[in-house]
Write a structure and sequence with these properties.
The structure is a single chain. This protein has 212 residues and is an alpha/beta fold. The protein is built from eight helices and seven strands. A seven-stranded mixed sheet has the order 3-2-1-4-5-7-6, with helices on both faces. α3 runs parallel beside α4. The radius of gyration is 16 Å and the shape is globular. The structure holds S-adenosylmethionine. S-adenosylmethionine binds next to α4, β2 and α6.
């Protein structure tokens, strides 16, 4: 399902600030060299993550699903002076690629990259988060939410990506495993009373959640 009219997408990109040089390099590198390049947040969503982080001014950010490092660098832009991003990537190759880019950025000292399964790593992080970005395996979203929720401060935010799952989540009976998992996550979120929530119709859908 085509979710965003390509002309609208092109217009929005044209009238938004351009990606900085390193982000453009990550985007180009990933598109050329990675078979799953479409997983990268990209220009508009990246700019949104940067803007949101600038508004929140988080001291601690957690990202689940680093991939090649694009979104972690966007999120890092809003950190306080003593701020840090913890970002978790399961696959060693992707983590190594991301590390190469982090090492060349001004946020090198502020981004802590963990390689391994987020389901194990989140529970050992002794932090209180102002902002969490969930963007890993779709079947894990409910578990990630339950793991991070106690570590998010009151009025802190959780963002979750791919909430339409290419339109499958909107279907009555999604055929794919990931579409089913996202649909279940969305139903889990809407039924909770301890959070404020809204879906931003950006790219593949982004859930914005605030802990009450
Ligand atoms: C959609 S991509 C992330 C894209 C990235 N946030 C961005 O916007 O550029 C999802 C990533 O999550 C990783 N992943 C999948 N399962 C994971 C797990 N259990 N723990 C940590 N990372 C995981 C995948 O290897 C993949 O690199």
């Amino acid at each position: 399902m085509e979710l965003i009219n390509p002309l609208v997408q092109e217009y929005a990109e044209k009238f938004s600030s351009a990606e900085d040089a390193l982000l453009k390099e990550i985007n180009d590198f990933t598109t050329t060299n990675h078979s799953e390049y479409q997983m990268l947040s990209g220009h508009l969503q990246g700019k949104f993550l940067e803007m949101a982080s600038m508004m929140i001014r988080p001291r601690r950010i957690l990202e689940i699903g680093t991939f090649t490092g694009y979104s972690a660098l966007c999120l890092a832009k809003g950190l306080t002076d003593d701020g840090q991003v913890h970002t978790i990537e399961l696959r060693e190759n992707d983590a190594a690629t991301a590390k190469g880019f982090f090492d060349r950025s001004i946020y090198k000292e502020k981004i802590i990259l963990h390689t391994g399964d987020a389901k194990k790593i989140v529970s050992i992080l002794d932090e209180t988060f102002d902002l969490v970005f969930i963007d890993a395996d779709k079947s894990g979203y409910i578990e990630y939410f339950n793991l991070v929720f106690p570590k998010v401060r009151k009025n802190g935010f959780i963002f979750a990506d791919n909430i339409f799952f290419h339109g499958q989540a909107i279907e009555a009976e999604p055929s794919g495993k990931n579409g089913k998992a996202i649909k279940a996550f969305n139903e889990f979120i809407i039924n909770r009373t301890d959070i404020e929530k809204m879906i931003l119709t950006l790219r593949d859908g982004l859930y914005l959640i605030r802990k009450k």
